[in-house]
Amino acid sequence: MPHLPIDYSLYLVSDPYDPAAPDRYFNRIRDALRGGTTLLQFREKKASSKQLLNIAATLKKLAGPFHVPLIINDRVDLALAVDADGVHVGQNDLPARVVRRLIGSEKIVGVSAATVAEAVQAEADGADYLGVGSIFPTRSKADATVTSIDELKAIRRAVHIPIVAIGGIDRANLRRLDPADIDGIAVISAILSQQDVTGAAKKLKECFLQLGDSL
Fold first, then answer.
1. Residue 146: predicted pLDDT
2. Tell me, what's the pLDDT at 1?
3. Of 21, 98, 107, 131, which one's alpha carbon is 20 to 30 angstroms from that of 75?
4. Is 141 a catalytic residue?
5. Per-residue pLDDT of the chain (215 residues; tens, 9 = 90+)
6. 120 CB-near residues (< 8 Å, 6+ apart)
7. Radius of gyration (Cα) for the chain, nearest Å?
8. Exposed, middle or buried: residue 18 (CB in 10 Å: 0-12, 13-18, 19+)?
């Protein structure tokens, strides 16, 4: 397990990379980091392996000055190649126990879970945290399995590792979540689709922290 505590409060997942506008892509990620992003996941399904390597290496450099860990979605080889801080896998990717064996005990392993059974298995396999959702409808992942808030609560009771809620979360619906159930929120469009990316990140993080203050 990682030695340093991880702040899961504002977990940003990257939006699709546009090779025709790389500066815009990286600038918006940088703006989100300036706004208080605490964890960054690189998720890209269409680029070539060479492109993925170059993008991931650039993101690692961007996140470094902000002391924000970089998580690579799915690709263990890519995470190792750029010395990323961890890997996030879904239910159809490599099992967490295999990922852990490949990347070692010091790296972060995250697992997507939509049910109690998946969450319990992920924890048993050595996951450091869970990405639970989709909590609300989302355009970012058309095939996402919906996880009810009741199921989220059941998952919280069943596991001891941090939980990051994901899926369609924004400032309007965030207050529907119980701060006792989650350690953070993962978003894409609520930050990266906004005109003022830095401002959107700041406001969303403030809303999440205020949610916790209500406990």
1. 84
2. 46
3. 21
4. yes
5. 455 789 999 999 999 999 999 999 999 999 999 999 999 999 999 999 999 999 999 999 999 999 999 999 999 999 999 999 999 999 999 999 999 999 999 999 999 999 999 999 999 999 999 999 999 987 665 566 789 999 999 999 999 999 999 999 999 999 999 999 999 999 999 999 999 999 999 999 999 999 877 65
6. 158, 159
7. 16
8. exposed
> 108: which strand partners?
86
| Cα 179–Cα 181–Cα 183 angle in degrees, nearest 5 | 70
Around 86, how many Cα atoms within 13 Å sit in the side-chain half-sphere?
Answer: 26
**Candidate list 34, 97, 141, 203, residue with the active-site label:** 141
Amino acid (one-letter) located at 147:
T
The three-state DSSP-derived secondary structure of 26-75 is HHHHHHHHHCCCCEEEECCCCCCHHHHHHHHHHHHHHHHHHCCCEEEECC
Catalytic-residue membership of 49: no
| Domains detected in the chain | 10-213 (3.20.20.70)
Is 112 among the residues known to form the active site? yes
Element (H, E) at 10: strand 10-13
Pick from 67, 62, 61, 76: nearest CA to 107: 76
Which of 43, 75, 100, 202 is flagged as catalytic? Answer: 43
Catalytic residue among 9, 75, 100, 112: 112
